[in-house]
Amino acid sequence: MFFFFLRRLALTIPTFIALMFVTFVAIRLVPGDPVEVRVGERGISPERLAYFRKEMGLDQPIWKQFLDYVWQLLHGDFGTSVVTNEKILKEFLALFPATIELSLFAILFATLIGIPAGVIAAVNRGKLFDHVLMGSALTGYSMPIFWWGLVLIMLVSEKMGLTPVSGRIDLVKYYFEPVTGFMLIDSLLSDQKGAFLSVLHHMALPTIVLGTVPLATTARMTRSSMLEVLGEDYVRTARAKGLPPSRVIGLHALRNALIPVITVIGLQIGGLMAGAVLTETIFSWPGVGKWLIESIFRRDYPALQGGIMLISMIVIFINLLVDMLYGAVNPRIRHAH
């Protein structure tokens, strides 16, 4: 197991190097000058402009800038925002709990509905339940996040008035200093009556929008894995022994079918980071995704570069962790490599 871990860890190193290079080059292809963002586009002399360019290291050759960028990353320095003049890591950590909270609820929503839906579809293969559930899953997987979010806002928030349109809590009724950054926990710690329910109320639509694609993927993978397991000899033997169908499906079939499903769920957590960018923008959710979009509009390219790098590192870590868990659960995987 230790050598399996080392091999998987070694495979992430080329990915990390390629990631650093791609983010460095891509940001410099974006139109605009970070120096002008910092000092303003007007009323600046060429000498003053050259001074700030030298201070930010932009007067160096591109290869020297890349080496300096790698050196900073290796020392945990992700740069400084040219707009707020704050360390990017500090801004990221302040906003990341909001993104994590939304992502965890989205994956929980997808798991609690997707797995039962996949099991029901597999047990009723070829019947009405199967066609309806898998048709719904395919539809959910195909819907763009921005379109789905706007549709829910118009129907649920505007027409029916059931949920708020934006934000994490009703700031008119409730206000408290954040302790953990996780609004659900902070609302409970605040002892303000109704604050926790307000947070859940605000979280409902963003959770559904962000969790729709993982839900569809989880349901389809569960169905596929269950169909494969239901045809195995040990399942037929359990049925021949006269065991109740609930025991055969829940204990013998589902437990073995969940191995690939768990892997997919783990990988979906990383993919939620990309979906969070659109979801947070639509619902004005104050997380990392909204911060990245605002960085583009403000031309705060160091913040954009550092934020993308941090999110990518988290995705790589999650994928590595899922790989490790899969190898621990299924010995055939680690022995095959």
List the helices and strands and how they pair.
Elements: H1 2-29, H2 34-39, H3 46-55, H4 62-74, H5 88-123, H6 128-142, H7 145-159, H8 183-190, H9 195-230, H10 233-240, H11 245-282, H12 288-297, H13 301-329, H14 331-335
Helix pairs in contact: 1-13, 5-6, 5-9, 5-11, 6-9, 7-9, 7-11, 8-9, 9-11, 10-11, 11-12, 11-13, 12-13
What would you say about this model in short?
It is built from 14 helices and no strands.
* Rg for CA atoms: 24 Å
- Largest sheet composition: none
- Stretches where pLDDT is under 50 for at least 5 consecutive residues are none
> What structural category do the secondary elements indicate?
mainly alpha
Mean pLDDT: 81
CATH fold node name of the largest domain: MetI-like fold
List the total number of helices: 14
CATH level-two architecture of the largest domain:
Orthogonal Bundle
Regarding CATH, which class of the largest domain?
Answer: Mainly Alpha
Protein described:
The protein is mainly alpha-helical. The protein folds into 2 domains: 73 residues, no CATH class; 239 residues, MetI-like (MetI-like fold). Helix content is 76%, strand content 0%. The chain contains 14 helices and no strands. Helix 5 packs antiparallel against helix 11 and helix 11 runs parallel beside helix 12. The protein is globular and about 85 Å long.
